[in-house]
Recover the amino acids of this structure.
């Protein structure tokens, strides 16, 4: 089968173009670090403290990718910081210049150590250098109490910011990473807040616009929280809590009008901010504050929806995917532990079964007899001590006869022994009673041992089932596809979340969760195509009705392979119903299962037994149990049932992965499966006993790879038993490309009847494989 890569659209670029693009990306990255460092060096709080630049330099020194690529990041960040401090007055900022240089030097000194890869390096180095220089400056300025409090505050801010700045540079998106990036943006806005055009501050306009965006997308709670944070940043320079109150209340009101549209949200935001400004600030500031609100609202209204969703996406993201992955990992560990515990119980039971199988020997019969008869006899010393050899040889020869015959006769002992024993008749009768008791104990022990053995096997199968179910939780999430799909939902003005992951066999799955998402299904075909373009792989249309009330839509990756089925059946002569039962179903991982069962005999009872077996097998597989474990469990269940009744069925299970074309065949007493590829037939056979006969029996498995145009034929033993099937192999060679599976199944059945069939129930099931290259090559 040809392999091809899905979802890799885009033009192929030359090596030279790739190098130019990489250089351009790197250059913009380094210049961005320098610019951020410059802005952070101009951000001051609490009357002149500047902990942000030092924390930023420390964060850029950590080798978080393990390849030593952070040196240039730290150099450019330090260059921007130093430029900012020098341009702001080197004399006033001499301490912070020294701090940043010392942090850079210490981090570079330890860059090859194991500590360079740990998160503790940035906060620890920033805290240590800042505290050392701060204590020196504190002592030199008189060692007063208030400067000490400010120093402690600055140290805590430096360590905390260094940690968050460091997390902000990581690639895995989490709430902590978003918090770090938000802190960097806030500090940059704080730096720019002092720059004004007349009485208007571009930084405050940007902050107001950001609060509006997030309020409209994330709602009142997130809007109020974002407004408070942005306002606190601005209040650090103002000296009293005006902006935090104004932005927080305005964000809350805008979020309340989230569903009313952008215009009403902007009006609510501006109105609330204006009311706050009227009573909270002086006359000279009111006009500038209101103008900033107005300009920000105009910008907000002019932002197109496409850009709108991109600007607000990161802000409203939650760590739900991360929590889901952690929860799945925890459940997987618990299931594995439970599976291991059950397997340990199986081992203990197996040892007990082995011990119980060590039954008593025939010597126990004569030991018990001698204790009852000989202990009180006056001749006991003569028999067991003086003539010990004769006694033992006589008992051994009698024991051999007793073991063969099952009872003891008086003539079994030699005359030398029987002639001198005064209680000979009592000895023989007692020995026969003890022999009967021993045989009863053996029979009872055998039953107990059999039950223990079955219970032990049930524990073993249950342990394997738990371990198999835990493998189903081994999902890999596609964060990039989740982001693209969530942005698409935002453009649709829907408050919904997306999960995109691959199942254990590699099949992709996407889930959309939210309220009022049924509107997406008014045109299922167009919806599926749009979502497929966002995901990068072709999805099947969701199997649900449009305009239905639902909170989740699930889409699975379209399978490149499809099959057409045809079936033909004939009941045994003289019977009203066939004892054969067949079914097929598809699992969520894209595997098609076809099951065929032949009940023992024919008629209603055989039909009932085969239906029950197929139904239970389907339920086990749909519950996530592997075909091997499902068949083993079913076989054990039938063996336990056979302690009261006799239920034997053949089972033929076909598992076809429609993504790869990989086929597995499992058989318990079933007839061969026949595969036709390029006009050449082959068969997959098994010699396992039918289900219900032997609990130790394991299903025979065969494998094949199906390609476009291949045929597969399943039959019950009424048609072919694998020995006299030459006619069937010849019939398969005559199958034409234009034939339908139904016609082929009918021809197989009619040929079997001409060959002398009708003495048993007969079923022929034929499938034809087709490959859709459009699904395979979608991008």
């Amino acid at each position: 089968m040809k392999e091809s890569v899905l979802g890799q659209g885009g033009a192929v670029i030359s090596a030279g173009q790739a190098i130019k693009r990489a250089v351009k990306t790197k250059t913009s990255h380094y210049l961005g670090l320098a610019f951020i460092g410059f802005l952070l060096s101009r951000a001051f709080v609490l009357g002149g403290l500047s902990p942000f630049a030092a924390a930023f330099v420390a964060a850029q020194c950590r080798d978080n990718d393990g390849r030593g690529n952070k040196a240039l990041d730290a150099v450019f960040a330090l260059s921007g910081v130093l430029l900012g401090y020098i341009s702001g007055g080197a004399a006033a900022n001499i301490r912070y210049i020294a701090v940043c240089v010392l942090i850079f030097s210490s981090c570079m000194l330890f860059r090859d150590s194991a500590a360079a890869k740990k998160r503790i390096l940035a906060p620890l180095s920033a805290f240590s250098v800042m505290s050392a220089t701060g204590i020196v400056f504190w002592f030199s300025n008189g060692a007063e109490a208030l400067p000490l409090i400010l120093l402690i505050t600055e140290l805590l801010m430096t360590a905390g910011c260094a940690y968050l700045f460091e997390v902000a540079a990581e690639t895995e998106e989490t709430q902590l990473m978003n918090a770090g990036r938000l802190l960097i943006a806030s500090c940059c806005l704080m730096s720019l807040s002092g720059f004004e055009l007349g009485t208007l501050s571009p930084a405050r306009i940007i902050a107001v616009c950001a609060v509006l965006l997030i309020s409209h997308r994330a709602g009142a709670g997130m809007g109020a929280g974002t407004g408070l944070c942005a306002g606190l940043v601005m209040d650090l320079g103002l000296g009293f809590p005006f902006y935090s109150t104004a932005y927080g209340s305005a964000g809350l009101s805008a979020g309340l009008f989230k569903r009313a549209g952008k215009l009403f949200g902007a009006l609510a935001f501006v109105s609330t901010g204006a009311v706050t400004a009227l009573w909270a600030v002086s006359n000279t500031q009111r006009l500038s504050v209101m103008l900033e609100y107005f300009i920000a609202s105009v910008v907000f209204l002019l932002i197109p929806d496409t850009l709108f969703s991109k600007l607000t996406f990161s802000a409203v993201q939650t760590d739900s995917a991360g929590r889901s992955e952690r929860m799945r990992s925890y459940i997987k560990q618990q299931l594995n532990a439970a599976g291991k515990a059950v397997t340990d119980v199986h081992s203990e039971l197996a040892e007990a079964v082995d011990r119980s199988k060590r039954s008593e020997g025939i010597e126990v019969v004569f030991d018990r007899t001698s204790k009852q008869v000989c202990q009180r006899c006056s001749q006991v010393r003569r028999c067991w001590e003086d003539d010990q050899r004769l006694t033992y040889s006589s008992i051994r020869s009698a024991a051999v006869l007793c073991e063969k015959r099952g009872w003891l006769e008086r003539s079994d002992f030699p005359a030398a022994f029987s002639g001198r024993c005064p209680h000979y008749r009592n000895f023989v009768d007692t020995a026969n009673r003890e022999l009967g008791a021993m045989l009863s104990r053996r029979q009872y022990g055998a039953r107990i041992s059999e039950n223990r053995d079955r219970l032990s096997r049930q524990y073993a199968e249950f342990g394997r089932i738990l371990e198999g179910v835990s493998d189903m939780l081994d999902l890999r999430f596609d964060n990039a596809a989740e982001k693209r799909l969530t942005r698409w939902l935002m453009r649709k003005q829907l408050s919904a979340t997306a999960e995109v992951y691959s199942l254990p066999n590699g099949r992709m799955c996407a889930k959309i969760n939210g309220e009022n998402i049924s509107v997406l299904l008014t045109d299922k075909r167009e919806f599926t195509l749009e979502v497929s373009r966002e995901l990068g792989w072709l999805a099947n249309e969701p199997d649900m009705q449009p305009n239905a009330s639902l909170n989740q839509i699930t889409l699975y990756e379209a399978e490149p392979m499809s099959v057409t089925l045809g079936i033909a059946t004939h009941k045994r002569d003289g019977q009203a119903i066939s004892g054969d039962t067949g079914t097929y179903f598809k699992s969520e991982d894209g595997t098609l299962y076809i099951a065929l069962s032949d009940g023992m005999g024919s008629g209603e009872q055989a039909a009932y037994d085969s239906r029950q077996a197929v139904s239970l097998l389907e339920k086990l597989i749909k519950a996530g149990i592997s075909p091997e474990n499902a068949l083993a469990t079913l076989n054990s269940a039938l063996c336990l049932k056979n302690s009261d009744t006799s239920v034997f069925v053949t089972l033929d299970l076909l598992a076809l992965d429609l993504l790869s074309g990989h086929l597995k065949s499992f058989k318990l007493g079933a007839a061969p499966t026949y595969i036709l590829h390029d006009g050449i037939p082959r068969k997959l056979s098994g010699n396992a006993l039918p289900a219900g006969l032997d609990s130790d029996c394991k299903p025979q498995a065969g494998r094949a790879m199906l390609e476009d145009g291949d045929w597969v034929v399943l039959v019950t033993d009424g048609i072919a038993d694998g020995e006299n099937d030459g006619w069937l192999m010849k019939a398969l060679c005559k199958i034409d490309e234009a034939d339908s599976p139904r016609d082929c199944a009918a021809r197989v059945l009619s040929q079997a009847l001409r060959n002398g069939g009708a003495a048993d129930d007969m079923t022929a099931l034929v499938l034809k494989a087709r490959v859709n290259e459009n699904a395979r090559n979608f991008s």
